[in-house]
Amino acid sequence: MKFIIKHEIDGRMRICTLQRRMTCTEADILQYHLEKISSVTSIRIQERSQSVVIYYSGKRDDIISALEKFSYGEAHVPEDYLRNSGRQLNRQYRDKLLTHILRKCVNRLFLPYQLRAVMAVLKSIKYIRLGLQVLMSGKIEVPVLDATAIGVSMIRGDFKTAGSIMFLLGIGEILEEWTHKKSVDDLARSMALNVSSVWLCKDDDDVLVPASEVQEGDIVRVYMGNVIPFDGMVTGGEAMVNQASLTGEAMPVRRAKGSSVYAGTVVEEGELTVRVKETSGGSKFEKIVTMIEETEKLKSSLESKAEHLADKLVPYTLAGTVLVWLLTRNVTKALAVLMVDFSCALKLAMPISVLSAMREAGGHRITVKGGKYLEAMAEADTVIFDKTGTLTKATPVVSDVISFNGSEPDELLRVAACLEEHFPHSMAKAVVDAAKEKNLDHEGLHSEVEYIVAHGISSAVDGRKAVIGSHHFIFDDEHCTVAEEYRSRFENLPPECSHLYMAIEGKLAAVICIHDPLREEVAGVIAELKELGIKKVVMMTGDSERTARDIAKKAGVDEYYSEVLPEDKARFVEVEKAAGSKVVMIGDGINDSPALSAADVGVAISDGAEIAREIADVTIAADDLRELVVLKKLSNSLMERIQKNYKSIVGINGSLILLGVLGVIQPTTSALMHNASTLAISLKSMNDLL
Asked: Which of 465, 497, 515 corresponds to the end of one domain?
């Protein structure tokens, strides 16, 4: 690619590409190519001016070399990246807004007044017709007020005022639609399906392959707790599937042979084999967009109250107009009330505030599935943390494998990895990774795997029943025993580790010691959450009392509970809610799903189990819990902004009505100042909160 360096300083370079024009697609291709360079920290591309600003931390020559070698024709970019970039959407609405403003300026400068009057009459038909439709349906809402203001101006022959009102309403509609669509698309992209590998059924065996290699007609196996990666038809097995991502309905539905299943839904219980019908991920994205646009989850209660209040204020505005006319017999003063209403600002500024906050959260790698969860987060006073993979690091490691049946530790690790490989949890991943590091082949070693909700896995290895899980599952539920000669070894397990127990044919075979260090930021995060209004922090874990006590002390939580079951977590959430608390639950595993669903705000860690992410209301990146503090600050700031917007709207519009009634300003000025203040508040609401 040919380019000119326009300006540069250390770590920053601005270039201009030498091409006739740059399309949005070409800009996305170049963006993707530059993002792949490890030394590049951020990029800004303006396709109209063909300007590219590159921030980097490595060598300048590496950037220059990469740009020189770049070719649009040779660049390979994922289809989903181009389809969902959002660049075309932004350009479309920028053009629409600019065209709207330029048309107004050109008409004002070059068209005679009589022609502008005719155009105003024609444009008014849309608003008046909508107002009449609302009125005919038995309602008195904002469109009635808009139609009345425009209609009265027309009757008085004040086409200039009518045109100004319609111009400002048009800008408001464009800005609202733009912000809404952009926020929805940003949110949908962050929720879009992201499956890197799947279990492909091949030659009577399951093989883990990249999702990109799967073709239509292939058969894949989906285990409990995993997301269904493609649209398809069930060819075997039976499962309860959570389809909330597509239907909004949280109750799982039964799927068996002959049933259709869809990408992005999650297997809650059982397992399925699915014949792939469609491998494209675009349908998933489109379904999410549709769901978000239609669901009430987007609306916080304050946002809904604002809309209802806006509609309720319309009759009072109309009544005020009539009352002023009756008292003063002055049409101009009466119109001053009609031209200024509270409802436009309420209906425009509040949704923009919420959607902009959701967009801003996405910039911090926080996915919020609805505005009401930001409101609930602002009101929250109790936070419950799962331990493993949440308070502790997301990548625990196996520190030791202790044999309790005379077998070699590597052989026991191989069996454990075989059982754990199908279930996406941090401890399971630690076992699988440890086996991989030692090159222990474990494919096809077992028969069908069953995940037991009470925190464990059951299968058969070489015809013998094998179970793996927590102390409670192995000894209380499965009633396994420890051979007498290993009793002393069992009683002296290393206390600093978490323990995963594996038994074969009812006898303890191995204890896998997993070092799961506390995240460095945990104590600071908990302290900051308390400063931001959280009164109680609780830790709940299936680990032993000894391990839980040690982690709780280091983390600085107020309460902790050890050896708890999934239903215990959910029950605790319900008890706290019944006591009047607003509860936030944070977890990453399949076992956290009931509690995540029960909480006022369920927060899932991004690399945890798919079902946890699906059920959760908010998803944060796995590498830093400080994002919880960002989420809390963002939520608090959003509520403050909404309250400030209320005060501004009441203050500004109340003052304009008073000035109009006193005759200080004319209706035209009132309308202009009212609409200008509405847009100013709305535009300010689009600014970042943090």
From this structure: 515
In the three-class reduction of DSSP (H, G, I as helix; E, B as strand; rest coil), residue 20 is classed as coil
Provide the token pair at 234.
Answer: 């069930």
CATH code for the domain of 202: 2.70.150.10
551 and 525 both lie in a single domain:
yes
In angstroms, the CA 211 to CA 219 distance is 12
- Half-sphere exposure of 297 toward its Cβ, with a 13 Å CA cutoff? 26
605 contacts 625 by C-beta, under 8 angstroms: no
What CATH code is carried by the domain that includes residue 580?
A: 3.40.50.1000
**Which of 105-114, 265-274, 331-340, 679-688 bottoms out in mean pLDDT, i.e. has the lowest?**
331-340
Helix (H) or strand (E) holding 469: strand 464-469
Identify whether residues 504 and 527 lie together within a single domain.
no
Instruction: Give the pLDDT band of residue 372 (cuts 50, 70, 90).
Output: confident
625 within some domain: no
Q: Which of 161, 163, 169 is nearest to 332 (CA)?
A: 161
CATH number at residue 475: 3.40.1110.10
CB–CB of 382/584 below 8 Å?
A: yes
Residue 507 confidence (pLDDT) above 50: yes
Partners of 358 in beta bridges: none
Q: Are 609 and 409 in contact (CB under 8 A)?
A: no
Q: Which residues make Cβ contacts (< 8 Å) with residue 180, sequence separation at least 6?
A: 351, 352, 355
Residue 483 and residue 447: Cα distance in Å, rounded?
26
Residue 13 corresponds to which amino acid?
A: M
> Number of folded domains in the chain?
5
Residues 304 and 173 in one domain: yes
Rounded distance, CA 148 to CA 135, Å? 11
**Considering the domain boundaries, does residue 561 fall inside one?**
yes
Question: What pLDDT sits at residue 394?
Answer: 55
Indicate whether 404 and 502 sit together in one domain.
yes
More confident of the two residues 189 and 112: 112
Instruction: Kindly report, residue by residue over 251-261, the tens digit of the pLDDT.
Output: 678 899 999 88
Q: Examine residue 350 and state whether it is found in any structural domain, yes or no.
A: yes
Q: What is the DSSP string of 65-120?
A: HHHHH--TTT----HHHHHT--HHHHHHHHHHHHHHHHHHHHHHHHS-HHHHHHHH
3-state secondary structure of 184: helix
Q: Give the structural domain span for 667.
A: 92-188+298-354+637-685
Q: What's the pLDDT score for residue 285?
A: 47
Q: Is it the case that residue 118 has pLDDT exceeding 70?
A: yes
User: What confidence score (pLDDT) does residue 296 get?
Assistant: 42
Q: What is the mean pLDDT of the chain?
A: 82
Model pLDDT for residues 642-685, shown as the tens digit of each residue:
888 888 888 888 888 888 888 788 776 776 787 778 778 877 88
**Could you tell me if 530 and 612 lie in one domain?**
yes
The pTM of this model reads 0.63
Residues 386 and 527 in one domain: yes
Closest by alpha carbon to 561, among 319, 363, 387? 387
Whether 470 is covered by a domain: the verdict is: yes
- Which CA distances in Å does 91 have to 83, 106, 122? 14, 22, 28
Compute the average pLDDT of residues 497-501. 86
**The predicted structure's pLDDT at residue 282:** 43
Query: Tokens standing for 457?
Result: 């896995």
**DSSP state, residue 398:** E
Average pLDDT of the segment spanning 490-514: 89
Residue 63: CB atoms within 10 A of its CB come to: 19
